[in-house]
Amino acid sequence: MTVLVTGGAGFIGSRLALRLLERGRRVIALDNFDPYYDVGVKKRNIDQLRQADGDRGLLTLLEADIRDRGALDDAFARYSITHVAHLAAMGGVRYSVERAALYADVNINGTIQVLEAARRHGAAQVVQASTSNVYGETARVPFQEDDPAVHPLAPYPASKRAAELFAYSTHHLHKLNITVLRFFNVYGPDGRPDMMPLKVLDAIVSGTPVTVYGDGSLSRDWTYIDDVVDGVEAALQTPLGFRILNIGCGRPIPLVDFIHIDERLVGRPALIERVPTPPTEVPITYCDNTLARELLGFAPKVDLETGLARTWAWYQSLSVSDASVAADIAGGGNRSAQSSP
Fold this sequence. Notes:
Helices cover 42% and strands 17% of the residues. With 341 residues, the chain is of the alpha/beta class. It has helices at 11-22, 39-53, 69-79, 100-120, 155-174, 196-206, 225-236, 255-266, 290-296, 304-317, 323-330, and strands spanning 2-6, 26-31, 59-63, 83-86, 125-131, 178-183, 186-187, 209-213, 219-220, 223-224, 242-247, 253-254, 271-275. Helix 4 (100-120) links the parallel strand 4 (83-86) and strand 5. The chain contains 11 helices and 13 strands. The protein has a 7-stranded parallel sheet, sandwiched between helices. It has 2 domains: 2-186 and 222-247, NAD(P)-binding Rossmann-like Domain (Rossmann fold, 3-Layer(aba) Sandwich), CATH 3.40.50; 188-220 and 251-285 and 302-330, Alpha-Beta Complex (UDP-galactose 4-epimerase, domain 1), CATH 3.90.25. Helix 1 (11-22) crosses helix 7 and helix 3 packs parallel to helix 4 (100-120).
């Protein structure tokens, strides 16, 4: 098995690549190092992958864009790629509001290019990342995969839903095995600095306000990174024709309770600044993971308190030598965020 991991320098992509390297898999990590947040964070992820690979020669880093057909064709041909974990995307719900064209270009056109390359070169399996945000304004809670998901609240989830539809048409016409995974609020060590889990920790530590929407009752289904990687790894090894599967913990928690856990970990109270809830935000994300359990053997193992304790321990371990990471977390990344896809 030779796996192309698009977005291989990102949070989920690098953790998946690390797992695959530990299994002795050949990994082609493709990333364009987009500066949506500090590229130093991504370079640190790649350094960790190189250390894990050692002198085995299992890791290849390709600095390229998923919209580049030539680069993709060259990668498939040169490295005999058999499996694809397509994790690259422009992320961020609120950042997408004024950038619809960019999100359509990267998340839709880029996905089409990846799918077409996988089809042309006979890949055995494609796992395509999506987001719980595609459910948008739905009355069905917990979220189930057969929901029509036709009311996304921002360009980001709209682009990811469109990418899902292109995945289905590719499977229908060309019989490419594609499993779409809708991730629910991924967090953990090495997480993105623009996302809520690290921003809350940093705000408490630094004594700066934590922005809370409304009364803090917005609830999110936080899913630990190792559990997410378990789901992606299982999907890579389990061709299902075409399937959309939820990958989430199944235990939503209000934002105020999330903050209270961090307060206990850090040992000091958070300063709360309440603002109106923007129109991009759903009241709750809540995963029904029944299908993933049945078809992939998916079984989330890490509860939120344990996962946040591990994240806090990692946060504390950042040293002055991790300047690019520490500085980006302290600055909150390039974007503000309350929830993650």
